[in-house]
Hints:
The complex is a heterodimer.
Chain A: H1 3-10, H2 12-21, H3 27-46, H4 49-67, H5 72-104, H6 126-145, H7 148-159, H8 164-171, H9 175-192
Helix pairs in contact in A: 1-2, 3-4, 3-5, 4-5, 5-8, 7-8, 7-9, 8-9
Chain B: H1 9-14, H2 24-38, H3 42-56, H4 64-87, H5 97-104, H6 107-114, H7 116-124
Amino acid sequence: MDDMNLAAALDPDATVAARVLQLPATLELFLAQVQRRAFRAAEFSLGNADDALDAVQDAMLRLHQHYRQQPAAEWAPLFWGILRRRITDLQRRRKVRSIVVGWLSAPGAEGEEAPVWEPADPLADPAREVANRAAYADLGRALRALPRRQREAFMLRVLEGLDVSDTARAMGCSDGSVKTHLSRAMEALRKQLEDWK
Amino acid sequence: MNTELPGTDAAQSVNPNIDPRTGALPQRARRLHEIAAERIDDATLQRLRAARLAAITPRPRRLLPVLVPAGALAAAVLAMVVIWGPLRGPPPAPADTDTSLIATAGSHEVDLAQNLDFYDWLATQQQPAPAASVQ
């Protein structure tokens, strides 16, 4: 486990705070910092690694093409906004495809994959590793069960650590809507993840 | 009576103004997300790096968006010529090659061309002796 991973495991809040406060010097550095979490976030929403990679790649490309001249403080909400729209596009396309496929084949032929978490950390406690892996899978399922806007609010505000205004910009809505979506998301997740108490 | 303290999960579910990043569920979710982001398999990581490099590498201007409309326009013009050309009227009768040549040439040149044998024969004849001077 490298230093960053160790720090994240020991104090994830400190990692999030540091990430928000330290603005990257270049766009490439920003993309390097955000690529892993963006992939996991896209995977949460899409339930598929290939689609998640496509979404992240497209978001990187569009951010660089259209917004590289913007101040560094703008990159995070812009990037997450682009990624959010790309994920939505892919979900809609998949919905249409599933309808067509549903007409042509038996139901249940195309299922979503659970997020893959690997390789295992050799230094971690195996029992804890298994528990974390199961908890992460539960979180993924619970997030995918949320309405889209609630899921986006939770992921941007809680998992990614954006503030309310940046989350609102990324979601294309008001600050009040972000708070409402997030409040409902938290309520639904608490019901679905009762085992986490 | 609500006995939950501000900042706890239950309090957040009814009050959206409380920071949602505090509480057991958000903290655990965030920690799992951070760890999962660090634990990405090498193949996926390679693809992410390649995607990032592809995104930031300036690419040469693509000609496809220009060439495709230009090619389509050229094809449309060609199709119009092929379709509308014959409809504008019957094509002129094919002109006889010799006639057209004659038509383009001057009358003197035509005479010369028709009497080449004569001029050839004339060139081989001996020059007649000069006539005796009139005394």
